[in-house]
Amino acid sequence: MQEEQPLQVARCTKIINPGTDEAKYVINVKQIAKFVVGLGDKVAPTDVEEGMRVGVDRTKYQIQIPLPPKIDASVTMMTVEEKPDVTYSDIGGCKEQIDKMREVVELPMLHPEKFVALGIDPPKGVLCYGPPGTGKTLLARAVANRTDACFIRVIGSELVQKYVGEGARMVRELFQMARSKKACLIFFDEVDAIGGARFDDGAGGDNEVQRTMLEIVNQLDGFDSRGNIKVEFGLPDLESRAQIFQIHTRTMNCERDIRFELLARLCPNSTGADIRSVCTEAGMFAIRARRKTVTEKDFLESVNKVIKGYQKFSATPKYMVYN
Q1: Beta bridge partners of 294
Q2: What is the rounded radius of gyration, in angstroms, for the C-alpha atoms of the chain?
Q3: Is the pLDDT of residue 201 over 60?
Q4: Which of 123, 188, 278, 302 is the most exposed place for a label (fewest CB within 10 A)?
């Protein structure tokens, strides 16, 4: 049995006489030379394009197999392999935001024929903004759960690299990988790490951050209001806070007749993340008392500790209104 020889990685830089039986391919083998070669028996002319990576044999340098684009391992690791287990019912106080996200993101993926019938292009992106802890990341996970699309989550700080041009290169490879999928959702979390206002103070680091953001803008064909949707996530109101309390206590062993509306009134200007912390701390009070159920008194003590005891400065004062 003849042992199969390993292939050499090369890049097809030019196709001579394309579309004919006499087509030849100019390949560049790194650190060796350039060659004009033909195709192997298992490769069709339609499989090879200019600029593509190919595998060639080490004797005649014939093209034996087309190779996928080279993607940085750090970019590949951004793909979420397991589908998130968050559903829309796990998000409280965001009914309007959920409806808008389903209309903009979910509908074009599940029913693209509706947009084709009307002759319109679906929006390319959604910008979610608001105070931290109001459900932006949670809603993105719920959208990924509803669709079978590949879900790529990118933390803004991951694109801030040490060397010049590295962040922009990662963005290009990220979108290149996304376009190779049948359907893909790219979620930029904490995009304000690279998405600040453009300015020039002479510092090279700031220029590199702006260069990375410009590459994202270029890939999206402009990150403006034309064709893109902006969704605001504000602080939950009284009814929404009570609903969030009920969501986070569904799996808790609580006593009956807990007044969630009272707890919601005691947590003004609180986010969903704050309310979740209140529920967790209430469970800790029950554990310290060696009880198997959480009482309303535990929640009241938790509110005093989490909400009133750890109030901190908010960088978004326009949201700090009583509701």
Answers
A1: 254
A2: 27
A3: no
A4: 123
